[in-house]
């Protein structure tokens, strides 16, 4: 498929020992700073880390899956943890939820009536929200590895 | 009295949806070729179902 040709990292790593000083700006060398920028972008907006590397298929799937999980989790009135947790589990839940980046705040806006975990649906929603965050963190890590030129 | 959730899924529906969405994400992140992705998505989905239903049956005796 033609799409597959676009699924390669933008920056291929130079061969070990290769002289990269003459590559110029048109062939930038993968840098740690750029890789971190890609990872942070991918965390803030799910899929953006891959989109910056022209991995369109992965970018779309990450955006849609994380978005779907967040919207469903909020619509099922799952619990969105805050930074004011009372115990370690609340803190862990907050870290997981915050992994969804900007979508965490979207979920807070969607879930106007607050959480309701007295029903099973709310409990499932809590899991959906946490999974969205962890999945986005995994995707951001994947984008980071790809930006460093590692196999992805 | 709290208002009902806009979306209400049964346990099975939530389970199937979760397995499908995560399998698709894993397939796209873990594989590059379309054929490999489809195989991985199907395999991952099958394993999700197997493990989920297996754990459910393992817990069944404790629910009575």
What does this protein look like?
- The complex is a heterodimer of chains A (152) and B (64).
- Chain A has one domain (30-147).
- Chain A is mainly alpha-helical and 152 residues long.
- Chain A is elongated, with a radius of gyration of 18 Å.
- Chain A has helices at 2-5, 32-44, 48-51, 56-75, 88-98, 102-110, 120-147.
- Helix content of chain B is 72%, strand content 0%.
- Chain B is flat and about 45 Å long.
- Chain B has helices spanning 11-30, 34-59.
- With 64 residues, chain B is mainly alpha-helical.
- Chain B contains 2 helices and no strands.
- The longest helix of chain B is centred in the C-terminal third of the chain and has 26 residues, at 34-59.
- Classes of the chains: A mainly alpha (152), B mainly alpha (64).
- The interface between A and B is medium-sized, with 30 and 20 residues.
Task: Give short descriptive properties of this protein.
heterodimer; A: 152 residues; mainly alpha; 7 helices; elongated; disordered N terminus; B: 64 residues; 72% helix; flat
